Amino acid sequence: MVLHIHGKGKQDRYVPLPQSTLKLLRTFWRTHRSPLWLFPAPTRHGLAHSLAHDGGPVTRSSLQSAFRAALKRSAIAKRAHVHTLRHSYATHLLEAGFNLRVIQDHLGHRSPRTTAIYTHLTREVRAAVTAPLNQLMRDL
User: Fold this and answer.
1) Confidence band (pLDDT; 50, 70, 90) for 50?
2) Across residues 52-75, what is the average pLDDT?
3) Whether 105 contacts 13, CB under 8 Å
4) How far apart are CA 91 and CA 120, in angstroms?
5) Sign for the pseudo-dihedral over CA of 72, 73, 77, 79
6) Distance CA 94, CA 128 (A)
7) Position 9 confidence tier, pLDDT thresholds 50, 70, 90
8) Closest to 99 (Cα-Cα) out of 112, 81, 80
9) With 70 as the cut, is the pLDDT of residue 43 above it?
10) Is 98 exposed, middle or buried (0-12, 13-18, 19+ CB in 10 A)?
11) Which listed residue, of 9, 48, 106, 124, carries a Cα 20 to 30 Å from 91's Cα?
C-alpha cells in the first residue's frame, strides 16, 4: 500500500497509498494498462492515429493542461499551478497532525527548512496549538 515516486534528481521515495485512492487508480489503469507507468503519455500510432498509451511518463505540458482544465471546472478563483498540489499536500498533512519529519520524508526533502517552506500555517494549525499550550501551562 505504498506508491513509488520517481523524484527529481533521483530522489525516489515511497509514500502511503490510501485504500480509496487505490480503487480509483485501478479503475483508471484499466483505460490504458501500461505495464510501466501509472500515468503514461498518450502517443499516436498507425494511419488511423488511434491513441495508445505506451510512450513513457505523461509529459509536463500534458499535466499542466489537465490541471488548468480541472482548475477551471472547479470554479476555484485562486491562482494555482501543479506544484501547488505539493504545498497543499504538505499543509493538509500538517493540519492532520503529522510530524514535520514524516512530511519531509514524503516530499523527498533533505532539509527540514525546505519542508517548512511547503507547509503553510493555516488558521486550523494555529488553533490546534492553543489547546495543548493551555494544557501545558495550566498549573502555572
Assistant:
1) very low
2) 86
3) yes
4) 6
5) negative
6) 11
7) confident
8) 112
9) no
10) middle
11) 9
pLDDT in tens, 98-108: 999 999 999 98
Q: On the CB side of 46, how many CA atoms lie within 13 Å of its CA?
A: 5
Distance CA 102, CA 91 (A): 12
| Residue 48: burial class (beta carbons within 10 Å; 0-12, 13-18, 19+) | exposed
Structural contact between residues 114 and 101, judged by C-beta atoms closer than 8 angstroms = no
Distance, in Å, from the CA atom of 14 to the CA atom of 1, rounded to the nearest integer, reads: 10
